[in-house]
Amino acid sequence: MKKIKNKLKEHKSIIENFSYLSVLQVFNMILPLLSYPYLIRVLGTSIYGKIIFAQAIIGYLALLVGFGFSITATKEISVHREDKEKLSEIVCSVLVIKTLLLIVSFVFFLPLLFFYNQVAENKVLYFMTLWLCIYEIMFPVFYFQGIEKMKYVSIISLIVRCIFVALIFVFIHNKTDYLYVPLLNLFGAVLAGMSSMYIVFYKHKIRFYIPEFAVLKFYFKEAIPVFLSNISIQIYVSTNKVLIGSFLGMTEVSYYDLGEKILNILRIPQGIISQSVFPKISLDKNISFINKVFKYSLAFNTALFLLLVVFSDMIIRILGGVQMLPAKGVVIILGLTLPIVAISNVFGILVMIPFGLNKLFSKIIMFSGVIFILQFLFLWIFNFITIYSLCTITVVTELFVSFLMYYYCLKNNLWTIKSTTI
Q1: What's the average model confidence in pLDDT over 187-208?
Q2: What DSSP element (H or E) covers 235?
Q3: Tens of pLDDT along 239-285?
Q4: Which H helix or E strand runs over 244?
């Protein structure tokens, strides 16, 4: 008992963050079960697919605004958590840079209104979907994660999500109400942003100011490797929705989105673990601790995949009804990424980033984007583009990423075949 108490005391912050994140993610699993089945039945697969397609397009702009700070800024906050002046510098630098990047994103967005038919025909929908970029700026998750106070993120996110789900049933009753989906999301983004900013600048006494150009340049350059890697990740994650919508249709986008939603729910435990232990690993760099995280992650995600294979048909019927059963193949194929992502998550996010291999990490992810594009070109040239083939090349790309990350961790002596355990 004494040993257990000492372990609990030693990892108190991790356990606390894990608990808050677990509560949040449990509700994140329950709430979609209320809103998604309603939306897919009321709006239909085609209109719902149009909303998801818009989110995929605007997601590229949100990626630019986020610019990799979710990792680099979190790391800096974690290291300097006791220095209030340094925290002010980091937070203000990130917010200023993100605001400038938002302006740049608008410059990229405007041509789409005239040269891309999918956007030009639904201008209002796409303008409203820009809530993704606003949320990226106003909700500084990197700060709360870095100081290991995820309770704030959990509480704010939970309240906003509950309000969003409730308002869906109030305002959306038929297909013509589809614009309320991005509008309600915009309302939630502003509400969450204002609440979090109040905590950061008023409760935590973070001083707001405009940092010098040299300071902004430093944080910008530090985030570039992660941003480049995020671009490649976006290529073989969100690009599938764009490709499916462009080549196959909006109904197929709905099928893929359902598969992705189910997988995102099943990936929640891995995300909780990573977010909880990342600040500690960045500080301690304990390989034996990481090894234990890896073993449990791999075993757990493999078990999740097996359960998914058995119960996929039932899950799809509950969430989307009989009309969504064609998504079963998508769910099974994407499910293969569960154990694969567990591997890449540990060796990439929890080993390479904390140990300073940001550039190598970025190169691996960038190269994986090239691999995905080459596979897609092969499918396009031989006229073999289907929803299942696009899912398959995603799995192959994830496998490629995991192998390279593991290889370079071994090569740089950050991992051993028989690593010790705690």
Answers
A1: 90
A2: helix 213-235
A3: 888 899 889 989 999 999 999 888 888 887 887 778 778 777 877 78
A4: helix 239-247
**pLDDT exceeds 90 at position 98:** yes
Please report how many Cα atoms fall inside a 13 Å half-sphere around the Cα of residue 158, on the Cβ side.
Answer: 15
Note the pLDDT of residue 47.
Answer: 93
How many C-beta neighbours within 10 Å does residue 76 have? 24
* pLDDT score recorded for residue 1: 59
The values of phi and psi at residue 317, to 5°, are -60, -40
Domain map of the chain by residue range? 1-232, 236-422
Structure confidence by residue, pLDDT tens digits, 103-121: 998 888 888 777 777 777 8
DSSP state letters, 331-360: HHHHHTHHHHHHHHIIIIIIIITTTT-HHH
Strands (E) across 191-299 are located at: none
Element (H, E) at 283: helix 268-284
Looking at residue 422, its pLDDT comes to: 38
Answer for the pair 397, 372: CB distance below 8 angstroms, yes or no: yes
CA distances from 318 to 25, 106, 174, 214, 326 (A): 20, 39, 21, 54, 14
CB 185 within 8 A of CB 126: no
**Separation between Cα atoms, residue 53 and residue 126, nearest integer Å:** 10
